[in-house]
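Morning!

This is the sequence you dropped in the shared folder:
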Amino acid sequence: MFYSRENQFHDLAGDDAYRSWLISRNQPPIVHHSGEMHWKRLCVLARHAANRVRGLFAAFRVALVADKMRRAQWELSRYGVRAPTARGNDRSGT
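The structure's back. Tokens below.
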């Protein structure tokens, strides 16, 4: 059985009807001064600010940990205890 384009069995899935509906529908105009756009921009600004604050606290934490380690090594060196090096625990005393 051969079916041509004009046949009733041509578009079984209804794609043509959906495509014609997409073309013919009335789309709302894009208004850049609407409250929704302002809200989205405000959310983006808040997210960027939160990320920067989070990064600031992370930098503070790294600086505090480095200072605490430096102070602990200095205290240990005052009492003659050698702090472990980056290569591991050096027990040879050299």
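Headline: The radius of gyration is 34 Å.

More detail when I'm at my desk.
O.
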